[in-house]
Structure formats: structure tokens, C-alpha cells
Amino acid sequence: MTGADNATGAGKAPITVLGAGSWGTALASLAARHGHPTVLWGRDADAVAAINQHHENTRYLPGHPLPDNLVATTDLAGALGGAGMVLVVVPSHAFAEILRALAPHRPAGAGVAWATKGFEPGSGRFLHEVAEEVLGADVPLAVVTGPSFAKEVVAGLPTALTVHSDDAGFAQQVADTLHGPAFRAYTGDDMVGAELGGAMKNVLAVATGVADGMDLGLNARAGLITRGLNEMLRLNQAIGGKAETLMGLAGLGDLVLTCTGDLSRNRRLGLALGRGQSIADAVREIGQVVESVQTADEVMRQAERHGIELPISSAVRAVLHGEITPADGLRQLLAREQKPEYPVGLFG
Ligand SMILES: NC(=O)C1=CN([C@@H]2O[C@H](COP(=O)(O)OP(=O)(O)OC[C@H]3O[C@@H](n4cnc5c(N)ncnc54)[C@H](OP(=O)(O)O)[C@@H]3O)[C@@H](O)[C@H]2O)C=CC1
Ligand SMILES: O=C(CO)COP(=O)(O)O
After folding, report:
1. Which stretches make up the Glycerol-3-phosphate dehydrogenase NAD-dependent N-terminal domain (predicted)?
2. Burial letters for 315-345: b for 16+ Cβ neighbours within 10 Å, e otherwise?
């Protein structure tokens, strides 16, 4: 696919995407295909030159032609100059740094959305809390999340995701930019639930990956996904997110995708650990961001803060730190006391 799917761009808001990895490139490609004048900012000059000259991101999405009207640059101020909307798609460890860098160049009126999944490492803050602190309370903010592998989106395969914001008009603007012939973008107003779902599913994908790597069978996989969803729902309720958010694309949808789809880097990390590989070797082989490595710590920090027990997430965190082996984790989970599925209703 090399041209725009939709019109010529006349009247469409210019979009600036920050982060030229697999997901930033796929989302920029989508906006460009929908006729938005789109600029993709990346920090790697060679990668940027290859996108402009060969219309391909050879490192992160090799073999997928990008639209001719997608322009890449390493010039952050230039990229932001004419932006009608900014979409941040860097890993969570770089999120605060990129927001601080973009803040002085953001045109007044340009809202800031992000498709990053995770928390601020170290503090465990939600990304919308970081964004509000750096950009101020008046800037429209939104989170883009849901079951969406970059490789499938850039290939034009049908995908559905969701955009959550406290500002309904901005959620709609972001959704309108992404929505198109093969892409459904829904909206919602629950940033807490949307961000928690996107972060926790990465940790739970490691758990199902480990189980599959240990050949524990399909029953174990389904059990982990379901009890994992329960962990998401309980922590979400304690923090103040809406249950329906986690029963939708931002929770269950992304959990199923990431726990079962081998395109998931977090699942692949779990598979490797379950087969006895070291975490360092597995992460090196994957060669892209694996958010669970940091997110497991931050999920458990949130859980401790709110007094919620999360046995699967806790076992993943301990395995990722080398405190226990995958086999120990399995033994711990199976040895837990027998109890009602819902001791105190859905959220017990
Ligand atoms: N890939 C996917 O299918 C999806 C990913 N996401 C989320 O999107 C986020 C980005 O992931 P993804 O694109 O897949 O990751 P990748 O590993 O594919 O790419 C990471 C990109 O971030 C850049 N980067 C890393 N650190 C910095 C920094 N300090 N400043 C600027 N750029 C930086 C890298 O640049 P360089 O190459 O120079 O190192 C690279 O371009 C993650 O939070 C992920 O969970 C969400 C949904 C789907
Ligand atoms: O978030 C994703 C799909 O929605 C991508 O998952 P991974 O980061 O595990 O590859």
C-alpha cells in the first residue's frame, strides 16, 4: 500500500507522530493512508532517511511499504511546528522525557495522545498523570489502546481499538484520525481503566507465555487468562477505573491478543523463559521493547499501594527478577488455598 486510502489530505488535520518504532510507524502510516498530512519523528537519522527514500522502516517493519505521503524527520521542533494533533508512541521509559522535549514546541490547540503502554518506571505513575504534570491541565490528552499488532495494522488487516480521554471532543478527533476502511476506533472516557488494561495485559502475557513454554496445555492458558482478567478487574476497581473498560478492547481484547498471539513480544519473552532461556538472552533476541520487564514492578507497586493481592502478576515479577524459577511460580500458584471463584462478588 503506497498511496492514501482516502482523499488527498485537503482539509485534514496535520498529525505528528513521535517515535519511529514499529507502533509509531504503523500508526503514522495509518493516518497518512487516511489522507492526513503526517510527519513521523524518530531519533535515528539512518532509519528516518530510509523511510523518506525507500518508504519502508527496514528495522522495525521490514517488507511493509509505507505511504508516499508519510514524511519522516529527526527535527523535533520542525515536526511539531504545524501539528494539529500529536501522537506519542515511544516506550514508557522514554515517555516523560519526550513529553518534556515536545512541550515548548507544541502549537497551541494541538492535543496530545499516546499509544504507549505502561507506567512511568520508578514512580509507577499513570502516563496521564505524567502528561498532565508536564503539559498542564488545559492540554487535551488521550490514550490510544486495544488489541493491535503493528505488523497487522501496517499490512491493512482489520483492527479495532479504543481512545479514552476526559475531553470527549479530543477523543473523537483522535478516533476520527485513526478510523478508516479497515480500522475501527471506538471512544471512551476512562483513562485509568484504559491505561491499566494496556499495562497489565503485558505482564499477564508473560504468564501465559511461560505456561505455553513449559507445555502446560490449553487448560492452563485459559485459566491464566481468566484469572488474569480477574486481577485486572480487582486492581482497576481499587484505583477507580470502570469495569466495562476492562471487559472491552482495552482489557479483555488486548489480554486475549497478547496472551495467545505469537507476534506479542511479551508473550515471546514468557515462552523463552518457560523453555529455560535467560531473560537477558530472550530480551536481546526479541530486539524490541518488552514493556512487561518494567511494568511488572509498577503493577505490583500499585497493588501494594491499594492492598490488592495479585498472585499471577506477583509470580511474573518474581520470575523476571530471577527470584523464583518458572517451575517455582507454577508450584506457588497451584498450591494456593482452594476458595470460591468470587468470594465477595465479581471484585472479591
Ligand atoms: N508494536 C506494537 O504492536 C504495539 C506497541 N504498543 C506500545 O507502543 C510503545 C512503543 O512500542 P514499539 O513501537 O512497539 O517499540 P519498538 O521497540 O518497535 O520501537 C521503539 C522505538 O522507540 C524509540 N525510542 C526508544 N527510546 C527512545 C527515546 N528515549 N527517545 C526517543 N525515541 C526512543 C526507538 O528508537 P531507536 O530505534 O533509535 O532505539 C524506536 O524507534 C510501547 O509502549 C508498546 O507497548 C502498543 C500497541 C501495539
Ligand atoms: O500491545 C500490543 C498489542 O496490542 C503489542 O504487544 P507486545 O508489546 O507484547 O508485542
Report:
1. 15-169
2. bbbbbbeeebebeebbeebeeeeeeeeeeee
**Structural domains in the chain, sorted by start:** 15-189 (3.40.50.720), 199-335 (1.10.1040.10)
Ligand 2 pocket check for 36: Cβ under 6 Å: no
Q: How far apart are CA 215 and CA 253, in angstroms?
A: 24
ipTM of model over 0.95: yes
Kindly report the protein residue whose alpha carbon is nearest to atom 4 of ligand 1: 23
Evaluate: CB of 153 within 6 angstroms of ligand 2. Answer: no
* pTM reported for the whole predicted model: 0.96
* Catalytic center residues: 201
List all residues 6 or more positions away from 157 whose beta carbon is below 8 Å from its beta carbon: 182
Return all residues near 96 (Cβ < 8 A) that are at least 6 apart: 120, 130, 134
Supply φ then ψ for residue 137, to 5 degrees.
-75, -15
**pLDDT tens-place string over residues 88-119:** 999 999 999 999 999 999 999 999 999 999 99
Q: What is the Å distance from ligand 2's center to 148 Cα? A: 7
